[in-house]
Amino acid sequence: MVNVLVLHGPNLNRLGKREKAIYGQTTLDAINERLIQKGQEWGLRVACYQSNIEGELIDRIHHAEGKYDYIVFNPGAYTHYSYALRDAIAAVDVPVIEVHLSNIHARESFRHTSVTAPVSRGQIMGFGALSYELALAAIREMASPNMDHEG
Q1: Are 37 and 103 in contact (CB under 8 A)?
Q2: Which residue numbers are catalytic?
Q3: Are the C-beta atoms of 5 and 68 separated by less than 8 Å?
Q4: pLDDT value for 22
Q5: Burial classification of residue 74, based on how many CB atoms lie within 10 Å of its CB (0-12 exposed, 13-18 middle, 19 or more buried)
Q6: Confidence (pLDDT) at 57
Q7: Does 87 count as an annotated binding residue?
Q8: Strand, coil or helix: what is 4?
Q9: Mean pLDDT of 56-67
Q10: What is the phi/psi pair of residue 125, to 5°?
Q11: Is residue 138 pLDDT above 70, yes or no?
């Protein structure tokens, strides 16, 4: 079974309450439940963790090595300036898929840059809560031994 760690960064614990026009009404608990369910259907063991604290997210990334096959990560606002998270992603041998609920390129200019994207396997954004599920679908395909997913 493929083990996937889903990391949610700062303020994502406020989903369903904060800026609903941007982030929707779905709660983080509902997203996590859906990801765990989809994971079970697709042969993925999904564990979810959220923190508003940069160091805790870094520790989770470090501890993922040898335990998880993939990380799905929404760094939240840390996306745009956390070189510490960028370095943590680069320091482990676990592919990371960066996820965002909104399209960061269609928002304020300070959100257009992701310092974590260059060290991530890929980036999915703009599909609301479905962005996470699309990341799991990508992992499901990449983990399939009969397909070539390089490039």
Answers
A1: no
A2: 23, 100
A3: yes
A4: 60
A5: buried
A6: 98
A7: yes
A8: strand
A9: 98
A10: -155, 160
A11: yes
pLDDT of residue 82 exceeding 80, the answer is yes
Place of tokens 């929404």: 74
Q: H helices of the chain, where?
A: 20-23, 28-42, 54-64, 83-91, 130-142
The answer to whether 112 is annotated as binding is: no
Give me the amino acid identity at 10. Answer: P
**pLDDT, mean over the chain:** 89
Element (H, E) at 124: strand 122-125
63 is in an annotated binding site: no
28: left (phi over 0), alpha (psi -120 to 50) or beta: alpha
Burial degree of 112 (CB within 10 A; 0-12, 13-18, 19+):
exposed
Map out the domains of the chain with their CATH numbers.
2-142 (3.40.50.9100)
